[in-house]
Design brief:
Strand content: 15-25%
Largest sheet: 7 strands, parallel
Mean pLDDT: 96
Number of strands: 7
Low-confidence stretches: none
Oligomer: single chain
Shape: globular
Helix content: 25-40%
Radius of gyration: 16 Å
Number of helices: 6
Strand order of the largest sheet: 1-2-3-4-5-6-7
């Protein structure tokens, strides 16, 4: 609860205008967060990335909050990650998420490739589409793959994901989790009230 590892900022066109990097840091300090990840939406052709990274770098020495700098990148139809290649390394914290609806076959294959991608740290707001189901065996296979590849699964406060059936099986597989508000506004940062039941499920012995 002292971390929020999925925070956006005003480098995109659908976050609050006051969701600036200094305001993110000030808010995180004021609510006692110890570690945050600033993970703006990115595309392979995004042109603002250097300015964004430079701005984060300029604030890191000014705060006691540990800041991970990175991006949230779409999982594409071929399973690749929509992120410039220069940021696909261990200096950057990469959340891979679905933002396009695919059929089950494409979704499952793309997710599998993202899990195996050594440059991905986290799978964000994971859930199947409303028009297909994922059975327990398939979920377990994903859980085993996540563990084998050292990935983490985000408990996402914005979308209230993953579903409980995923969490239960992932927990049995030994999957590791962390919290992400998916903040697009200042007051979203560190606010996990909507996912208390998911947090409780993870913490049950």
């Amino acid at each position: 609860m002292k971390e929020d590892l999925h925070i956006h900022c005003n480098y995109n066109d659908h976050s609050s205008i006051d969701l600036t990097i200094p305001n993110i840091i000030n808010k995180s300090e004021s609510i006692g967060l110890e570690r945050i990840a600033i993970t703006e939406h990115v595309r392979k052709n995004s042109e603002w990335t250097k300015k964004y990274i430079d701005e984060i770098d300029s604030y890191i020495p000014r705060t006691n909050v540990k800041i991970l700098k990175g991006f949230e990148a779409k999982i594409l139809v071929d399973g690749e990650i929509d992120c410039p290649n220069e940021y696909l390394n261990k200096d950057y914290f990469i959340i891979a998420s679905f933002h396009t609806r695919y059929n089950k076959e494409v979704w499952y294959e793309g997710l599998t490739k993202a899990i195996k991608n050594p440059n991905v740290d986290v799978i964000g707001h994971l859930a199947p589409e409303i028009d297909f189901k994922v059975n327990d065996r398939e979920i377990k296979n994903l859980g085993d793959l996540i563990v084998a590849n050292g990935k983490k699964i985000e408990i996402n406060s914005k979308y209230i994901r993953p579903p409980k059936e995923f969490l239960k099986i992932f927990k049995e597989c030994g999957v590791e989790f962390h919290l992400g508000s998916d903040a697009h506004a200042i007051n979203d940062i560190g606010n996990f009230n909507r996912i208390n039941d998911l947090i409780n499920l993870i913490e049950e012995k």
